[in-house]
TrEMBL record, chain A:
Gene3D superfamilies named among the record's database cross-references: MetI-like
Record-given protein name: Amino acid ABC transporter permease
ABC transmembrane type-1 domain location: 19-208
Keywords carried by this UniProt record: Amino-acid transport, Cell membrane, Membrane, Transmembrane, Transmembrane helix, Transport
Membrane-spanning segments: 14-43, 190-211
Membrane topology qualifier: Multi-pass membrane protein
Highest taxon above the source species: Bacteria
NCBIfam families hit by this protein: HEQRo_perm_3TM (TIGR01726)
Family to which this protein belongs: Belongs to the binding-protein-dependent transport system permease family. HisMQ subfamily.
UniProt organism field: Fictibacillus norfolkensis
UniProtKB/TrEMBL annotation, chain B:
Official protein name in the record: Amino acid ABC transporter ATP-binding protein
Organism annotation: Fictibacillus norfolkensis
InterPro entries assigned: AAA+_ATPase, ABC_ATPase_HisP-typ, ABC_transporter-like_ATP-bd, ABC_transporter-like_CS, MetN_ABC_transporter-like, P-loop_NTPase
Keywords: ATP-binding, Nucleotide-binding, Transport
Example GO molecular function: ATP binding
Length: 219, 237
């Protein structure tokens, strides 16, 4: 065994700052992905054929191709097509939001379908308009059903976010690699990065449990 | 107030309503009875557009119901066999939801009215409970209060006591009897023959998608004119 963490110590703050970058990245992707995923799921269960078709095709493409390919396409294609350089961070966020929306829309669709039909009928019989019914009656119940699956998707997102290091965004992963390269010692910084990811995932898992318990108060 | 003419409805190739014609006057209490699968629920659901009919017409105060969706549902309240309370809302929120969202009544006003309604169904003390903490009979009484909160002119009941334990049937029927006394127009699908006999002005007997008898209860229960009604009554009485 030839581990030397002493050499790593000066670089630890540099790597840890990546937590902030990763968290920002995941949070923004997550919120955008969730909103877009909700819209897609409403397309999927809606009556308008063209929107249904679009949402299904969209999901199929994003689930059927590698994430890293999607990211490189977006990173290189957007500047090439529009002339606007959006930077690694934005390209990463865009990719992750678009990609996770595909998965999230499937989760939400299943969750909506699992809500008792009687809920929709009761709301309709009371004259509640479709939009209000969806937002206030169906989605809150669907959300409760899907929270575990959603949390899983968020955890996946946190871990997978490490691939933005490929296009040079300075997240935890990228920072660990940079420190490794400058010290000629990769094992220690990667180990630290691994520990940080693990703790992040554990925190998300815990937050999910707390939320589930809160939502369960009506049972 | 409601005029039904030649109502037909199919699910795929299964014709469930085969030409129903009847009318319901203001203040009338109508009991709809018949064997399982005869189309009672479908008939009721057509009356507030939960199902759309294929042929025939339903006029409410002279207007075709297909032209008055939202307006229609404000006029017609419905109570379901399985209550269908909103499980993520408290009892009070269940009752105030539609008045606030649909009638745009203020929260305080809606709550005041809801508490009055909960009092009339005997559930003042449950206002802040969630539906999962109520018995079946209590849930159904909340569901009735919820429908009444929209101040409907007609109430539809689809087997409101069929999912209840026997000891809870009475409390729900009592609430319904109070409504009858207040002069509410009601259409009630029920298997409670005693109740139908007691409160109904007319009994509609359905069998195989047809309206076989349309009769005063005294006559229908004592002396049904068709063999099918006779056979049905022998089975259930
Ligand atoms: N949404 C639907 N899709 C397909 N078939 C349906 C649907 N709803 C009802 N049916 C069929 O229509 C027929 C009549 O059903 P309906 O629920 O109106 O009968 P019912 O008289 O209310 O019976 P019950 O006493 O069992 O409630 C049944 O054969 C049923 O299977
Ligand atoms: Mg039925």
């Amino acid at each position: 065994m030839n581990l030397d963490f002493a050499q790593l110590v000066p670089s630890i703050p540099y790597i840890l700052y990546g937590i902030w970058v990763t968290l920002q990245f995941v949070a923004v992707s997550l919120v955008l992905g969730f909103i877009w995923g909700t819209v897609l799921s409403l397309f999927k269960i809606g009556k308008i054929k063209i929107l249904r078709w679009f949402a299904d095709a969209y999901t199929s493409v994003f689930r059927g191709t590698p994430l890293i390919l999607q990211m490189l396409l977006i990173y290189y294609a957007v500047p090439q097509l529009t002339g606007v350089d959006i930077g690694a961070f934005s390209a990463g966020v865009l990719t992750f939001a678009l990609n996770s929306a595909a998965y999230i829309s499937e989760i939400i669709r299943a969750g909506i379908n699992a809500v008792d039909k009687g809920q929709k009928e009761a709301a309709m019989a009371l004259g509640v308009p479709y939009r209000t019914m969806m937002l206030k009656i169906i989605l809150p119940q669907a959300f409760k059903n899907i929270l575990p699956a959603l949390m899983n998707e968020f955890i996946t997102l946190t871990k997978e976010s490490a691939i933005v290091s490929v296009i040079g965004a300075l997240d935890i992963m990228r920072r660990a690699q940079i420190v490794g390269a400058s010290n000629y010692r990769f094992f220690e910084p990667l180990l630290l990065a691994g520990l940080v990811y693990y703790l992040l995932v554990m925190m998300l898992t815990l937050a999910g449990r707390v939320m589930e318990r809160r939502l369960a108060k009506s049972d | 107030m409601i005029d039904v003419q030649g109502l037909r409805k199919s699910f795929g190739s299964n014709e469930v309503l085969k030409g129903i014609s009847t009318s319901i006057k203001k203040g009338e209490v109508i009991a709809v009875i018949g064997p399982s699968g005869s189309g009672k629920s479908t008939f009721l659901r057509c009356l507030n557009l939960l199902e759309t009919h294929d042929e025939g017409s339903i006029l409410v105060e002279g207007k075709d119901i297909n032209d008055m969706e939202l307006h229609l549902r404000k006029k017609i309240g419905m109570v379901f066999q399985h209550f269908n309370l909103f499980p993520h809302l408290t009892v009070l929120e269940n009752v105030t939801f539609a008045p606030q969202q649909v009638l745009k009544i203020s929260k305080s006003e809606a709550e005041r009215e809801a508490l009055d309604l909960l009092k009339t169904v005997g559930l003042s003390d449950k206002a802040n409970s969630y539906p999962s903490n109520l018995s079946g009979g209590q849930k159904q009484r909340v569901a009735i209060a919820r429908a009444l909160a929209m101040k409907p002119e007609v109430m539809l009941f689809d087997e409101p006591t069929s999912a209840l334990d026997p000891e809870m049937v009475k409390e729900v029927l009592q609430v319904m009897k109070n409504l009858v006394k207040l002069g509410m127009t009601m259409v009630i699908v029920t298997h409670e023959m005693g109740f139908a006999k007691e409160v109904a002005d007319r009994v509609l007997f359905m069998d195989d998608g047809k309206l076989v008898e349309d009769q005063e209860p005294a006559i229908f229960f004592e002396n049904p004119s068709t063999d099918r009604a006779k056979a049905f009554l022998e089975k259930v009485l």
